[in-house]
Amino acid sequence: MTEPTRPLGADLARIAVFAALVIVLGTVVVPVPGGVPITAQTLGVMLAGLILGARRAPLAILVVLVLAAAGLPVLSGGRGGLGVFVAPSVGYMIGWVAGAIVIGLIAHHGRFTWWRAGIAALLGGVVVVYAFGIPLQALITGVPLGPTILSSLAFLPGDLIKVVVAVLLTVALRRAYPRAFPAARTVHAG
Known about the structure:
Elements: H1 8-25, E1 29-30, E2 38-39, H2 41-69, H3 90-107, H4 114-141, H5 145-152, H6 156-176
Antiparallel strand pairs: 1-2
Helix pairs in contact: 1-2, 2-3, 2-4, 2-6, 3-4, 4-5, 4-6
Transmembrane segments: 12-30, 59-76, 82-107, 119-140, 160-177
Membrane topology: Multi-pass membrane protein
Keywords: Cell membrane, Membrane, Transmembrane, Transmembrane helix, Transport
């Protein structure tokens, strides 16, 4: 089954809306020692992947990162500029792009269900983001990987809550407005 084509303007608008959502969610910040704050921006990444799919969601995240690189204060705590790309949180931001792709691939491959959305948000929004974020945080801060992994466990409860919230919001939106979602891709036996 192929995904129906939408007008380019509609796709651009959706990408812009989700970029704005990620930016707005960055205003919810809890500072943490070690340079990587707790934010709600990952919730925006999860929602983008679940709703926009694997092709459009990473574009929304890239818009946010380009705006940050241009110096706009679009990241948590009003940060922006090229300096954020050498800060301890850079790996997490790179992980957002990869995570959005993984979320979209899992959530929209086959029949959309709440449990598929949950697995997608957990794997893409937590596991993938941590897989990029933790090693780069350790490298930049000079803290060994083991202690960095242990300190990152402080983020896990909040990220699990974000997974639940993302799934609940997505399921509700899917029931209310199914056209907001890309068509499911199915595997055909050949």
